[in-house]
Write a structure and sequence with these properties.
- The chain has 3 helices and 10 strands.
- It is mainly beta and 183 residues long.
- It is globular, with a radius of gyration of 19 Å.
- It starts with a strand and ends in a 5-residue tail after the last strand.
């Protein structure tokens, strides 16, 4: 299911604003995984607000690519669950990119992204035996990624193991990393 409560676009201000975006399967986890033949990941994405600034909205409305200077997400929640009871696809590296991600890549090109608060959960579950196999929750505050200067930084980064996993939490204040093209 893909849901968006409100969408506002301003050609004059070069701004797109959306509220209450939610992307998730139409059915519960058990039914979702029962309908899959190979190991699959279930995604749930929630964004209360989504801003695209400095863009070519007119091109997007004409079905062309939207080139944005900046994407801002005040809050993002992504929940991923993998069913480990099934075998992976024979050659999972050659599988096509998920359609939602492929669609976004083909429509929006941006220079930088800012996420004020991000919560990303990754867990594994064996649906055949109904057992959890652990996972992690990642928290981030003040996350900024720039493709122009190839950098990623966050004011705070935390990684917490889910219940039942014998691992320690990781907390980092200021986090910065740079990526350089070696070619």
């Amino acid at each position: 299911m893909r849901n968006c409560q409100a969408l506002t676009a301003s050609l004059l201000d070069a701004l797109i604003f959306a509220e209450n975006i939610e992307v998730k399967p139409l059915v519960g986890d058990v039914e979702f995984f029962n309908n899959q033949k190979v190991r699959t990941t279930r995604y749930r994405l929630t964004m209360p607000q989504f801003f695209i600034q400095g863009n070519s909205i007119l091109g997007l409305l004409q079905g062309k690519k939207c080139a944005a200077d900046f994407i801002r997400l005040p809050n993002l929640t992504l929940d991923m669950l993998v069913d480990t009871s099934k075998s992976p696809a024979v050659d999972s590296l050659s599988l096509p990119t998920p359609s939602l991600w492929k669609s976004l890549q083909s429509q929006i090109q941006f220079d930088s992204i800012g996420i004020e608060i991000a919560r990303i959960s990754y867990a594994e579950m064996n649906t055949a035996s109904d057992t959890s196999r652990g996972g992690y929750t990642f928290y981030s505050k003040g996350l900024r990624a720039s493709f122009r200067d190839s950098s990623l930084r966050a004011r705070r980064l935390e990684i917490h193991p889910l219940q039942g996993l014998a691992a320690s939490a990781f907390t980092c204040g200021e986090f910065r990393i740079g990526f350089r093209d070696s070619s």
